[in-house]
Amino acid sequence: MANTQIAAAREGTVTEEMERVAKRENRDPEFVREQVAEGQAVIPANTNHDALDAMIIGRDFSTKVNANIGNSETTSDLETELEKLHSAVHYGADTVMDLGTGSDLDEIRETHLEHSPVPIGTVPLYEAVKQADSPAEITTDLLLEIIEKQAEQGVDYMTIHAGILAEHLPLTDGRKTGIVSRGGSIMASWMEENGEQNPLFQVYDEICEIFAEHDVTFSLGDSLRPGCLADACDEAQYAELDTLGELTRRAWEHDVQVMVEGPGHVPMHKVAENVERQQEVCDGAPFYVLGPLVTDIAPGYDHITSAIGAAMAAQAGAAMLCYVTPKEHLGLPDEEDVRDGLAAYRIAAHAGDVGAERPGARDWDDALSEARYAFDWREQFRLALDPDRARDSHDQTLPGDNYKEARFCSMCGVEFCSMRIDQDAREGDGDGMERLTEETNLENSPAAEVNLPPVGTHEGADIPGSEHDQAPAEPASDD
Length: 479
Ligand code: SF4
Prior knowledge:
By secondary structure, the chain is an alpha/beta fold. It is 43% helix and 8% strand.
């Protein structure tokens, strides 16, 4: 029997999670219920994830950001993994995917779930690869066993690569970068080796039944996403998308929540087309995009190449953005990369929300601009997306306490500070140039929680093992 948010919503029930989400988004609980009932939004909330602070992913809500963490064969232990989770939440991740492929996967996953206020996603196929002697040896029984175990542990959403079919594989011939999704390449090699249809597709209804029991949300993997601009929007990508649309409807028949993953690498003039096509093919199921990177020429800066595409996708209707760090294509990200990647993606999500004219989304911008014009440096730092970064950048050249009231900074200097010159002109002029008198009050803003400072806060969250405070800290002194 379905035990899910969508089942409750379809019966007309506003759940505790819907109430919480409505508060965080500043929306009517009944609107939240309708959106979930119609599959236009998901609340990933496994019934076994007790530490969860419920959130919602959908095109008519604020844009969300996912961060990937996880160990590998060569790196990290439980303590390090908890620190990664804490960093991700601290810098503003709305969900976290644990993509661990190293040792102690169960212990790490269970500890994450014990403490995480944000939904945790996984790719169960990775654990199956670890357990089988080779990818070709993976069986449907093994896949179902791992999916059921992770569902019982409390995983909120799982990437399931069920959309890549044997008949899609020839469509990838001639691509510049072939199949770049990890799960997609594993499934393709399985089908080639065994000469059979995708095993995740074969047992899709059984997976739906497990998900319905524990309220696990599908994140339908885009195994054939383009890995370079030249492969964007090709026949292979769109053939798989059609299958993802069918799988979306099948999951809904089981009262299971669904979001659909998207590309990848897409030039700017095709980003909106990708979002619109997914929304049409998948009947409005939330679109969860990786980037997309809008150019392939900047390894080392792919948090920027992808944040450009992510902002455009968010404005066009993507519901969640999977962050990309500067280490993309180059290596395993460290904590500084996580910070840079999340900053880039929080900016993209917020810019998308402002561009889509979501209620109150611009209030944070206005409040910060007012503090800037008032030379209220402390308020400017407090309101900054990354307060520590803003303060450090200012204090590199003008560290003294007296400069926190200064009517200039070191960029233009006192003589050429345009805002000072402008203000002095307004003070001296009797008519024509008026000063702003109204101030933005963030306390009364209709904006969703994610469009208000500070980022990375959760009521009652408790993630041990990190030097960070849960909320960005105010420094003890100014010098
Ligand atoms: S000196 Fe230039 S950058 Fe600094 S506050 Fe004035 S106008 Fe802005």
